[in-house]
Amino acid sequence: MSLHFYKSILIVTVFQIGINSYGQNISFNHYTRNNGLSDDIVYRIYQDKKTGFLWLGTNNGLSRFDGYQFTSFQYKGLIDRNYILSIAPYNNDTLLLSYYREGWFLFSNGQIYPYKKVDSLHAKRTISIVSDKGENFFFIDSKELFYLSGETTRKLDFKENYPRPEKGYPIIKNQNGQIYIGTTNGLVEFNDFEVKSVWSNQLSGHTINNGAFDKQGNFWYGEQNKIFNLKNNESFKKEVVALPDDSFITRIEIDSKGWIWAFTEAGDLFLYREGKLLDMDKILKLNGTMVNDMIEDQDNNIWLATYGKGIFQLLLSSNYVSYKLGDKQENFFRALYQSSDGTIWAGGRGAVFFLKEGEWYKYQPSQLAKQEFVNSITQNSQEQLYIGTTQALYLFDDDSIVCLNSDHSARSLEWSIDSNLLIGTYAGCFEIKDCNTTDSIFKNLISTTINHLKYDKHQNLWIASYKGALQLKKDSVIHHYTTRDGLLSNKVNRIAVDHLNHVWLATDRGINRYDGKQWYSYKLSEPYSKHNCTSITSGKTGRIWVGTSGGLFYIDEEGKDLRSYTDIGNSNIYSLATDSAGNIWAGTLNAMICINDRINKEELPLNSNPVSITEVRTKDTVFNKAAHVKLPFKNNRLILQFTVPFFKNPDRLRFYYKWSDSDRWIETNQRYLEFNSLPPGKHSLLLSYSISPSQKLSKPKEYSFSVFTPVWLRPWFLATAALLVIYLIYYTSRYRLKEKHLDNLRENEVQKQITSLKHQALNAMMNPHFITNALTSIENFSYTHDKIQTGKYISDFSRLIRLNLINADQSYIPLDQEISRLETYLSLEQLRFENKFSYSIEKQLLEGPEIIEIPNMIVQPFVENAIIHGLLPSGKDGCVKVSFLQKTQDSLEINIEDNGGGIEVSRLSNLSRSSKGIKLTQERLRLSGQERPVEITNITCEGKRGTRVRIKINLE
Question: Hey, what long-range contacts does 875-881 have (CB within 8 A, 24 or more apart)?
Fold first, then answer.
């Protein structure tokens, strides 16, 4: 964009965004009583280096903050005021507190109790405590300075050479913990109650009521409204910066970046960094509220304690800066672009913002409606700016604004090879030539919504649409890629091209990468799998940054993992862009975010604080969390509360736990665990956490406890009881078992006799049935045959009757006798029916037929049924095949097959009812313990139908 344009819009319509809208690149969080802080008046802040917790001395007791919630602690005795003016470390697990006009107290394991080593008069007047090495402390009593070593308190008086300043002696530590004390005659070093002057040539005669050492050992201090610096290798002091004339500096602090923080007597706070002086009162909107204390935490964030507005967290250590550029409605950034002169442009709702020479400006032309979203921004070779919105396409030409197209929403803008402007809309792609809109191009190729247009390094045009992605070369489609080609989804939102000319697609199901040969997929892991990937850009370091509906992610240089960037939380990312300096710009619903992409992988958001156990209790008992807890057997419901101090988006923490004898980690989104009905014995629980699914778990925190084992569950008691029970069972049950055995024998014998009688009765019922059928056959035979054949038939029949009578009283007979009888019967039937059928008997046995016993006369009724109802009605010569198959020692299978006309399926169930012999035989087999002893099925053999009867017999 031309300089003339800048001049015109700056004069007429552009206004600078003030410092309160993050114009000075400072992001902060503000916590008050509404967030759980015990009081908005906070005197001191201290961070425990072992656990990472922040401890706050307030007007209403002690507060602990882990980034997620505040926990308050108060002295339970009688005191007039609960004001905590100072906090200092006493030992690894104890804090030393000074109460306003109440003395010194110790805090340990959640309890506050008085500390009596120091003289009560001085303790009640303590304003500030500074710890020395070990359990030695400097403390200020009104204006006097004291030193507590062991149980001895000594007042420090530096005689006439080093009088104290009017406000009292200031205590100053260097980076090594060495103590220095400011006086009206310069700065002195304190060591074993000996003092010696330092920088005496430069500071002699100067009142030092504040000061701080930087990492290089240089000394900074404030005198009136000016900040001075003394370097080790120089013999003079240098004035660095002057505060407003009415300022009087009372305290100087230096953070890890070397930035200078100056506190004034009026309660103002100034920050001097990179040659600029910032009024933090205006940035934080303190409105005259005094800042009482300042610390830098382990993550290099600055914390401020105020007198009436709670605490502030200044995110100076973050790898990103957040800009809230306009009002709430305007902060909806869908479009990002860097023009040729380095200006960053951001399209909001009804407004355009741009960053020029470190300052943000807002341009709000009257042509843009308040609800008109800016979708895309680009610039031509004449530095003219084109802006595509949800309603039209605009050209910013010097001091005029021209609407080029109001028929379609301009979703994406891209310059073609012919230097014509391509516009992606809801209705396809259009082209601007000489500021005139042509008809839709590629309309025969794609007519759906076009989300993004992008050229790769080989001048291929890529089109992202709701119907996949198109690759074009000189208006010809090379390929139309869809899920059939490997895309995760056909809904493609944005396109990026990296330095290797790989094409990256952001879809609503994840990310796809094309290397010119094949597609690769990157899916979001739980719990982010349902997030829509809305935007994507290639960083100059090789990382691919992905914006989603639930936060920012990145793919590292190796291209393996899709990781969550936890710093900025779960903001909805609408747009991404990379500027010429390599910074990543993210447009969200609430702010513009600038991220430093040049950090190493090891510097990406991590946290080294361990899991801290905050409370151990049962339903009605609270235990000392540091001691080994032994739970009673009847009250073994354990509730374990824990947390991790984490001040960057604590909601993103993922906690895990497992028992020491298990390999499986269990995830929980709670900061407590509850266990019921724990078994007796020793238990060891491991607790860990991670910030994102792609990050390794932290070093586990182990917590061990025991559940009391009652007497009746101890091994010696159980062993004794078991022996006694065995003894009693053996001697008291022996007789009963013997009697029961005899009863069973008698019952089995009776049952056997009953079963035998049943078999005999059924056998007796079958014989008359057989004889009746046989006599009927003889009568028919005598009418149709000569006397010789009739006599032979009667002779064979008498032999068969004799066999039946011999075995009539037998329930079981040998198999060879059954086969002999069956052969006699078949020969009779064959003679009777003039050889109209043939028969065969097959045996496949594991032992001799004389050894195997089967129920008496079970085969003949089925063979008779096969001849009478199967073969003869068919009118054809037939065959009956009987086979005896012994597959195991315990079972025998008998198959009776004929090649007659078969049996209708509907008549299978009626067959047993129509044949008395079959019904009796089935009943006899059921008495042998068979649930389904007989199966009758139709068969087809060599194209002929027939019937198969399968009899299954259990052999004893």
Answer: 877/836, 877/837, 877/838, 878/836, 878/837, 878/838, 879/837, 879/838, 879/839, 879/840, 880/826, 880/837, 880/838, 880/839, 880/840, 881/839, 881/840, 881/842
